[in-house]
Structures are given as structure tokens and as C-alpha cells.
Automatic annotation (TrEMBL):
SUPFAM superfamilies: Histidine-containing phosphotransfer domain, HPT domain (SSF47226). One of its GO terms (biological process) is phosphorelay signal transduction system. Residues 12-61 form the HPt domain. This is HPt domain-containing protein.
């Protein structure tokens, strides 16, 4: 996508690192509010970005939510899945910061 342009790649990584915590915050708030529709919408919005960065463990957890209807979300263990999403998102951010030497 960036055709090997290191400056563009770094900018995309920085945007990802900036946006993922905002997504996590929105997801956690929606979970606390038991807003299943917002959870589903937030996950659906971020899924392509996570896929682009190759964060497959994180993407797996997002797919569990994205593949369910709002009614089915109430039947799965959202607490466990959101805990995993938080963990994997943090792991991805830390790895990107290390790989790209970002503070």
C-alpha cells in the first residue's frame, strides 16, 4: 500500500498506534454500558485496519464479535473476548513501537 515508502509506513503505524487505544476505550465503554450494537459497530469499523497490520490474534477475537448478530452477542462471553481484545491490542501496539522505534 505504501510501496515501500518508509515515511508513509511509519505514518500509518503511528496513526494505528494512536487510533487503537481510542477504539479500545470505545469498546470498553460500550461493554460497560451493555450497548451490544455499539460493540458490534466498533468492531466492524476497526477490523480491516487490524487485518492490514497482520494482527491475526486480535483479528480472531474481533471476528467472533463481528460474525454474530446483536442478539447472539448476548449469548457469548463478551467479557472474556473483550479482555482478549484489550490484551492483544496492547501486545500489537507494543510490538509496533519496538519494531518502529516509537516512544
Amino acid at each position: 500500500m505504501c510501496r515501500g515508502n518508509k515515511e508513509s509506513i511509519l505514518k500509518m503505524v503511528e496513526v494505528f498506534i494512536d487510533q487503537i487505544p481510542k477504539f479500545i476505550n470505545e469498546l470498553n465503554t460500550a461493554f460497560s454500558d451493555n450497548d451490544l450494537l455499539k460493540i458490534k459497530n466498533e468492531v466492524h469499523k476497526i477490523k480491516p485496519t487490524v487485518h492490514f497490520f497482520g494482527a491475526f490474534k486480535l483479528k480472531e477475537q474481533l471476528l467472533v464479535i463481528d460474525g454474530k448478530t446483536v442478539n447472539e452477542l448476548g449469548e457469548i462471553d463478551l467479557k472474556h473476548i473483550i479482555k482478549n481484545i484489550n490484551f492483544y491490542a496492547s501486545e500489537v501496539i507494543n510490538e509496533l513501537k519496538t519494531d518502529y522505534k516509537i516512544n
